[in-house]
Predict the 3D structure of the following.
Amino acid sequence: MTQLNDEPELFPSGMVMMSKKKTAEKIPVAKWSPSKPNPDITAFFRRPAFLPEAEDAARDVLKSIAEQGDQAVAAAVKKYDRCALTPEQFLVTKSERMAALETVDADYKKAVGEAVARITKFSRSGLRPDWQMLSPKGGNMGEQFTPLERVGCYVPGGAAPLASTALMTVVLAKVAGVSEIIACTPADEDGKVNPYIVYALEVAGATDIYRIGGIQAIGAMAYGTETIRKVDKIVGPGGPYVTAAKRLVYGVVDLDLVAGPSEVAILADESARANHIAADLLAQAEHGTGYERALLVTNSAALAQAVQDEVVEQRQELPEGEALDKVLREGAMIVLVDNLDIGMNLCNEFAPEHFEIIVREPRMWLKKVRKAGAVFVGPWTPECAGDFVAGPSHVLPTGGTARMFSGLTVDSFRRRTSWISFTRADLQDVLPHIESFAKVEELPAHGRSASIRFDRS
């Protein structure tokens, strides 16, 4: 979930280009057969998780931040956020945070309260407990979990501020027991942070809020500066440039996952309503980077045709914007398959961030999902419910990385430490095996460190 103006320019003007007319071409329809793969579908599935040009830009900015600290952050904020800030102005003040409490409307406060309650309940239910087991000769071993001490949450802002991301990251960290939770989100040209984001961060439990976006926010959190202390881990979604920056700082800090431009795959049969499907496809296309992906896989030619028409019609009702239209031209597709089993296999191959199953008996198909960030089961579970309020975090793997990554959870904010407590009998039991491995690996001191405990001298 990202916004265009969090990051370096994606269009030549550096601005979100506006369409002259609110028109939309029909989403292309293609046929898929496992025995005869369609090259257009294969090419559509090969969306990059990282953009080389984004990594080039991110590398330069990160290098300058690592070397020059606050000075480089301020320069990047001026260039990309178009906001002139001194390092003393990076931090959102307590008075600004309190002002947000008075600025936002009552309905929004109620929505935030409900979302926080649901996210908190889901997160607490997902906490893994410490555990232990007996060893064969009377000892024991297990795992214990401890919270990270300081984490950084990236919250996209801009024209459509993603206040929900504040909740989907900070609340989890709070439930995990993290003591310091900082947040970075871009300011407008006047240096003001959207009060709805500030309010969400305040309620969620952010320790400090910094008015910094894009690559420069990732660099400041990863390397630390004179005014922003380094974090242990960075979480939160972003567009191509934020995603590239996160990848480049991995190892300096821990990361959550690859959470770039949003995407959805929908598996639907003739029971699905075309206007619902079209609305769900458009919901993913409107995030604003132009790199989003929207895929419908169906065994119904009639539904495919109806969804095509509905997308064109519903597009007329949405604000003008080249980024959305670019997604409909280049990042959306309807695929016809002979049956739902083929369709499910195809969706697994796509490995979507969000996966909606809108078919008869949808729960029957849930167990067949192998690669997806989050699954939305049945006609009454639109993806937007997960974006805002359902409970699980909406920070999910994108760009096909759901093949190996999972979404953000409360345990993402905790260290897992294994422990072993052997008795004398336990060590004696495994001593021959320790000595055997030590011999093969040519590590005699390893073997000796065990055997010496049984020397009589």
User: Anything to note?
Assistant: Residues 4-49+260-390 form a domain with the Rossmann fold fold (CATH 3.40.50.1980).
